[in-house]
Amino acid sequence: EGLSTVIIGRPNVGKSSLLNQLVHESKAIVTNVPGTTRDVIEEYVNVQGVPLRLVDTAGIRDTEDLVEKIGVSRSKEILKTAELVLLLINSHEELTDEDRMLFQLIGTTPAIILLNKADLPLNTSVDEVKNLAGSNPILRTSMTDDRGLEELEQAIASLF
Ligand code: GDP
Ligand code: MG
């Protein structure tokens, strides 16, 4: 049981690092090699009284894969079951079409947008993210220095 919470984002944005931070353990393998997470990983965690079933999705490798192969349908399938989406953006990079597509896939599911890698210089257009995010909250986070994790836990707790 637990609220189905799906972590999405391009490869290497920090999805598995986030899962590990939230469960306070190294459950998912983190490397700097895109495509490290091949299987879907599930972990149960209680965030400020809210029980979550966290799902770490495998990164989808490029736009061609995303559009022409199984990427979109797989993401959509997983997202159909989501009660909460955590969408990670690498804020050290400019937005890509894959990022923009992931915003579209969220649909009406409650989502929290994480501008991750906040320990590095900001290269993402925050204005564009705000437009894409609509009313969903946007947080600056870093998985390497724990920045924003407290705020994330509070944001999750305040949604449910
Ligand atoms: P995933 O592919 O989205 O699951 O990303 P990972 O969690 O495997 O992380 C990919 C790489 O980015 C690893 O080398 C992480 O250590 C690094 N990383 C993740 N989060 C951050 C962050 O907030 N700041 C920095 N500087 N590196 C990060
Ligand atoms: Mg991963």
UniProtKB/TrEMBL annotation:
The chain holds residues 220 to 379 of 459 of the full protein. Residues 2-160 form the TrmE-type G domain. GTP binds at residues 12-17, 31-37, 56-59, 116-119. Belongs to the TRAFAC class TrmE-Era-EngA-EngB-Septin-like GTPase superfamily. TrmE GTPase family. This is tRNA modification GTPase MnmE. Mg(2+) binds at residues 16, 37. Exhibits a very high intrinsic GTPase hydrolysis rate. Involved in the addition of a carboxymethylaminomethyl (cmnm) group at the wobble position (U34) of certain tRNAs, forming tRNA-cmnm(5)s(2)U34. K(+) binds at residues 12, 31, 33, 36. Homodimer. Heterotetramer of two MnmE and two MnmG subunits. It comes from Sporolactobacillus shoreicorticis. It is found in: Cytoplasm. Transmembrane segments: none annotated.
